[in-house]
Amino acid sequence: MNHFFRTAFATTFILISIIAPGSIAQQIYSKAYGQKGDPAIIYLHGGPRGNSTLFEATTANALAKKGFYVIVYDRRGEGRSSDTEAKINFDEAFSDLNTLIKDYDLAKVNLLGHSFGGIVSTLYTERFPQKVERLILVGALFSQQESYDHILTTSLKIATQARDSTMLKKISYIKTLNEQSEQYRKQTYEVASHFGFFKMPRPTLESRELTEEYENSNFSKSNIRNDKAPILFYQNESRVNIDTKPILKDIIQKNIKLSAIYGLQDGIFSKNQISDIKRIIGPQNLYTIENCSHYPFVDQQAKFLQSVQEIMDK
User: Fold this and answer.
1) Per-block average pLDDT, block size 10, for the chain (314 residues)?
2) For residue 232, which of 220, 255, 287, 301 sits 20 to 30 Å off, Cα-Cα?
3) Structural domain contains residue 206
């Protein structure tokens, strides 16, 4: 078995039982890599409709070997944490994260929030600052409408130059949709995916090997996606299109360490957005990676691990 998928020197697997009034217990998938007692890092995956399989397969063990107690989990109703009664909203996510922290017997944690998981971890830190030592944003969403506008504006230019009538028609249709709707989000990201905004420009040997190993692993086979999750999120959550920049500023005022790692070719963020993050957290706390898009831990894993190590050592 390839070394990226060997069991870490110490692992813990916990199925957390969540019991809602009048319902049967539901279980949250989670697993820890590394030695308990080392600084705890909890990874929060993207979504809604995501899971932590890619990070777990490629990076959790490698990060644990740097001297960290790395915990991965799938949010309720997403991935391997199946729950037909899940609301898929922030309050539910906060409750389950509190249970996770309690069941792993942790006092304070470091949160590693990727993509939509960046919003979840930011709002959680705002609500429970006493439980968070450090927040690390990784390709994390923060000003959602600015990202949507950037995607559509950039895509419009590309489609116009290519005389792509199909995509021009789709972009025009998206602009008629309610910006607070699930369809607006879904179709905007479909356009971004069509134009390769989530892909690194020049895949390296390391990134190709990681991707291939993941695709051939048992983790890939458990890459479960709940297509109803985004719909439920928009039904049950009012904060569906938000700007968390004021919250990030408030988090810093509460003396919580805040850092960020972004790929310079992550197509869903404009240069102005990255500049905003830089101003908020300080240039010394922003780590940008060349030839890297939305998944720094796969696109440029060595540089990603080095960045996390430097952040944790501060």
Assistant:
1) 39 53 61 97 97 98 98 97 96 97 96 98 98 98 98 98 98 98 98 98 98 96 95 98 98 97 98 98 98 98 98 96
2) 220
3) yes
For residues 20 and 288, give the distance between their C-alpha atoms in angstroms, rounded to a whole number.
42
Residue 165 maps to a domain: no
Domain coverage including residue 301: 3-144+201-313
3-state SS, residue 40? strand
Instruction: Tell me the residue length of the chain.
Output: 314
Largest Cα–Cα separation, the chain: 57
Overall domain count for the chain: 1
Q: Is residue 176 part of a domain?
A: no
Q: CA angle, corner 42, sides to 39 and 43, nearest 5?
A: 135
Instruction: Report yes or no on 188 lying in a domain.
Output: no
Enter the tokens of residue 233: 């999120």
Q: Which residues contact 280 (CB under 8 A, 6 or more apart)?
A: 245, 248, 249, 252, 258
Q: Strands of the chain (E only): list them.
A: 11-18, 26-33, 40-44, 69-73, 109-114, 132-138, 257-263, 286-289
CB 51 within 8 A of CB 224: yes
pLDDT at 16: 53
CB of 83 within 8 A of CB of 18? Answer: yes
Tokens of 252: 């810093």
CATH of the domain at 56: 3.40.50.1820
